[in-house]
Amino acid sequence: MRKTILILSHSYSTQFIDICNQYARLFNKDCYEVTVAYLTGHPDEEVRQRTLADQILFLNAPKKIVRGLKIAAIRQLLALCKQKKFSIVICHRYKPAYIMLWVSRFFAIPACIAVMHELRTMSSLMRKLTVAMLAQKNWLFAGVSNAVREDLRRDVWGIPQDRVITLYNSIDMECIEPQFLSRDQARATLQLPTEAFVFGNIGRLAPNKDQASLIQAFAKLKPQCPNAKLIIMGDGSLEQTLKQQIQQLGLSEHILLTGFISYAYRYMRAFDVFILSSTQEAFGRVLIEAMTAQTPIIATRTHGIPEVIGNTGTLVNTKSPNELASAMLTSYHWDQIARQQYREQAYTRAQHCFSIPAFRKTFWELPLIQVATE
User: Fold this and answer.
1) Which residues pair with 95 in a beta bridge?
2) Domains, the chain, ordered by start
3) Fewer Cβ neighbours under 10 Å: the N or C end of the chain?
4) Entry pTM
């Protein structure tokens, strides 16, 4: 008889579908039955087709339940756990973990893992108290980077440090590589000149992504690099502000804001260099997408970013347009040998550290998981 696994996610945004699939792929279908449950969101057939699981549930919890005491959601999950008798429950983000902390007080689950994807998740007093009161020895708390792990270790109360671990986000390289468009295909679709040197950025247009500093850096660089273009892919609250900045700098012909593009990572090979200018980044999944695409990286030296790219890219300080412009200029003048070296080192690091086989090895070596699956 197959052991049962529950993966509980707050929502089915594209990022979390991929993350649920990352965890679902851990479990051999001959030995395990995997249920993925999305706490919020109406049933969606496309999401169902994209989710790798034996059973996909849309709990469709109203916002007032998610924000409040969540009693209805707790009852719903308690009934599901009684029915399925899960051996392992993996929760992504705090709200699902909160619900399962309560459920696990009423129904025995051999192993529960709460995976946190952002910094300062447990900083509030109420969350500290909740975890201290409810978390039992069958619980592990995981950060998606060492930076998030250390953040959790500082904030959670009553949890031994060896039960606060790192579980990196990973990428299915065999699956994603065929999805990348070639350089020429990607540039044709994005209407980028074939001969241009293209700096690319993918991310929400939000304060913590700091595309404003990237635009300033490009403005400093442009007079020395007439062939350079900058493309920023994403939407968000700062879209109009960034457009105004670009217009004021007289760079409208050289900087392209595309808005939201589905599966933007597929265009990664259109870039000569990928740039992540964030001031806060718990992990930066887009970095391993760039590494898999063998696109050289310039990124900021903050939180989880340095441990993701290691020595396979260039790091600069946050909110430092001058330093960023200097790094961009250096990359503009790389010869083919230097460029190829960055590509190969980044790809190898992605394989060794952030591929599904690497993640599988880390996961199955966890003592609590070994006990729960005996």
Assistant:
1) none
2) 3-170+355-372 (3.40.50.2000), 174-353 (3.40.50.2000)
3) N
4) 0.93
